[in-house]
Structures are given as structure tokens and as C-alpha cells.
Design goal:
Layout lengths: L31 E7 L4 H15 L6 H18 L4 E9 L2 E8 L7 H14 L1 H10 L2 E6 L7 E8 L1
Antiparallel strand pairs: 1-2, 2-3, 3-5, 4-5
Helix pairs in contact: 1-2, 2-4
Amino acid sequence: MPPYIRTALCPVSAEPRPGPYLRRRRPGDGLALSLTVPCVPRSAAIVRNAMTSALHAHSLDRYGLPATVVATELVSTATKLTPEEDLYLSLRHRDNALRLVVWDQHPHHASPVAVSLCEERRRRSLWLLAAVVEDWGGDWGVGDARPPHSGTKSWVLLPG
């Protein structure tokens, strides 16, 4: 019969951790929410409810209305342009700013004419998003996702 191997637990250090672990966190620091949802119209409500709960849990209720409008607009636009695919949403709060990123699987067009028409169609459908972000003093944009991802990445930055 082989001998039993005894394992020892690592001792707990009595010294405080150095660096960023001791800094005082501001409300909302560390919020990170990621969702993958089907690219169907009902996903806008799912995203809206998840975001509202996450913002409330992190004491970021002040972002509630603009963030939910922005997410709804991004998701509903993606459902028109890329139906029946998956959609990925990322919500983060750092340095007193809320960043929302949506990746859809809309393929890149080979024709420059098709690319410009598609970009124009997406920008026209995001007019409400543009108004909310401008009113909040934020920034937004749309572009091709960087490799290894494919599709289109839309992002919004709402400062605190």
C-alpha cells in the first residue's frame, strides 16, 4: 500500500497587502457585467433588466436612464442588422465613467458601396442613442471588431 501524501495549507500572512488592495473604493468601482444573448428583439428587455439590477447593486442608479436607453438602442439596431445570431454586451464602470460595448456578428462587406450604405443605415437607426450620449456629455462609435473577433463593435462612454 502506497504511503499517504500529506499536504500542508499555506499560512495566512498577518501583513497587510500592499498597493491597490488598500485603496478606498469609490461607489461602482469594479462593476463588470457581460452578457451573451440571442440577437432577437426580446433581448433588449433582458439586457435592460440585467443592467438596471447591476447598476442598482453597485450604487450607480444615476446612470440608469441613459444606460438603459443606450443599451436598448444598440441591441435593437443589432437585431435588425444581424437577426438570429448571438450578441455580446459588456458593461464596465471605472474611473468615474460607464462604458458599454456591444458586439454583433454582422459580417464585413467586400464592396465599399455596401460598407458605406450599411454604416449609414446603422448610424441613422442610432439617432436616439446619439442624442442621449450628447446630452450626457459622452462619446460613442461603431467599427469593425478587432481580431480574433468578427462582426461589428458599437461602444458608448458615459462620464460621471
